[in-house]
Amino acid sequence: MTAALEVRSLNRSFGALHVTRDVNLTLERGARRALIGPNGAGKTTLINLITGVLKPSSGSIQLDGVDITTMSQAERARRGLARTFQINQLFRGLTVLENVCMVIAERDGHANNLWRPIGTRRVILEEALDHLDSLRLTEDALRLVRELPYGRQRLVEIAMALAQRPRVLLLDEPAAGVPSSESHLILDAVAALDPEIAVLIIEHDMDVVFRFAKAITVLVHGAVFTQGTPEEIQRDEKVREVYLGQEHHHG
Amino acid sequence: MSEAKSRSSAFIEARDRATDYLVRRHYLRWTEALPWLVAVACFFLFPNRMTFGSQVLIMIMFALSLDLILGYAGIVTLGHAAFFGIGAYTVALASLRLGWSEPISGLAAAGVIAACVGVVVGWFILRYRGLTLLMLTIAFAAMLQESGNLRSDLTGGYDGLPGLMFDPLLGTFQYDLYGHTNFWYALAALAVVFYFVRRLVYSPFGQTLTGIRENVRRMHAIGSPVHLRLVTVYAISAGIAGVAGALFTQTNAYVTLTVFDFDSSAKVMVMLILGGTGRLYGPFLGAAVYMVLEDYFSKMSPTFWQFGIGILLVLTVLFARRGLLGLAEDIGGMRWGGRAADAAPRRLVWKPEHWKALGASAFDGGVLGFLVGFAVNMGHAELMTAYVTGLPAQVAVFTLGGAAIGAGINAFYLLLTSRSAVEGQAS
Prior knowledge:
The structure holds two protein chains of two kinds. Chain A is built from nine helices and ten strands. By secondary structure, chain A is an alpha/beta fold. In chain A, the strands form two sheets. In chain A, strands 6-7-8-3-9-10 form a six-stranded mixed beta sheet, sandwiched between helices. Chain A is globular, with a radius of gyration of 18 Å. Residues 247-251 of chain A have low confidence and may be disordered. Chain B has a domain at 29-301: ABC transporter involved in vitamin B12 uptake, BtuC (Orthogonal Bundle). Chain B has helices at residues 2-5, 9-24, 34-45, 50-72, 81-97, 103-125, 130-150, 152-155, 180-202, 204-214, 216-221, 226-252, 262-275, 282-300, 305-319, 323-332, 352-379, 382-385, 391-426. Chains A and B meet through α2, α3 and α4 of A and α2, α9, α10 and α11 of B.
């Protein structure tokens, strides 16, 4: 069976700065993998390479056995690769509902239509409301995104990614910046994700990582330092040194 | 979602409300009849000013075309007169060289040709954004104007092509001295174009334009072919600008290369900002108010009418950042025209730096005006003596005018950049 996502010897340099070094990473279908590493390890760069925001200097990326290395971001997204952003990237001046409708309209090709109003398409509307419902956002449906507290905005961020109906989902610190009183909502949402979706999560909070992930990849200085099950990583003395022993005392 | 059914009534109510909002959003509201009623009323109130009336309608259409790309898609351009000019020359040359004088098919042809040019030009320039794009749009319009000047045997250059003849409208209605036929003709054309734009704005395609304006990174991430969308709307907008230009030629029976002027591109943007960008009725209000004031000021003072426009812009920046419609919305809590929800927040976040910037540019403008005042007084004293006499008074007028224009330009710049400034603060 082909892997949902297969990254092979991926490299990326910015001038003399070699930020991604020969990274190999495999996400099986339904995988729950965490990507951890100290600040500046190149985690977000790796996400940007996988989603096509950045082009790799060398190496290849396969999505469901199809080489997507040279495809545009949009093509990758249409093939079922979705992400959330470390810093919210939402349509701040639109309502929550419109944010999610936008994704569905784009996904199903309605967005090429110049004539029939979006409100006449009940299918879009119902599905969007279902997504909002699953994240307890229904009551905020008509509020503008920029009026929402940051934690709620993070939920919209996830709702947008889910509305893409992805096969591979990359979550870039989904709970970052969310007060702990609300972070459980996000973690619940992550835990409730469709088991068919392959998920890669970047997270600093070790509690979240150990609870959510079935496999962990540790990235240090742009290279894969080690991979393993949460237990293995937890026991690994070298990981403690480079990562847990550093200035991070989250959670 | 079966669990949804067991939820509280508040939840169900919220869901219904959300459904309702999206289902009804594109419905016609009674207030939307207002601009058209006003137009018809003007016909009966000012039957002698209908030549001017058609010009207002044409500028509304032009501003509407700009609203599509600037207000909805967020493409900043200062060269939209290029497409207006292409449309204007299409019908002029078709009539003069090919003997194609049927007006309505002329309009359509002008729209199609301008749209085709829009596809080609847009394909190249829309890969850029921000200042680069702005410069490219200016360059394109200037290049067209200069090529027209090179072939002045064809275009008539800046002397223009006077005395163009067009067939009677629908083969029946002759053009009268008062411009009555032209007024109804322009109003009908505007109505058709507006209906199309309104459909487009509420369509899923129109929504994605707003998405591109609001957050292009997200649009890429959800799989939107952003470049294709932008080129499409650019072409549509170019086509509408072309139709407006064609109407301009037909109603004036005259066209010169000045249709490509940078002034014209800038003016239509000012109109749009004045009325309110990203709303369907912003162009109506903005173009009408601007044209009427320009007409009024220029009669009051043929040399200094821009002074009044400068002040108007300063006032807009200070008190109506989202345009006159935005102001009306703030005042009355009303939501007429366009979509209140998707207009970017332009509420004024006024900082002391802004006063300083305005003051500095007013000072610069004043110094410039002072110098120009002297220069003009040496060379062309007769220009002003009819209005203000005496060197000190004239120099004073120039200084004040320069200061107002300087502050006005700065205010215009602040308007253009207001969104990023506000967005930056909010998060």
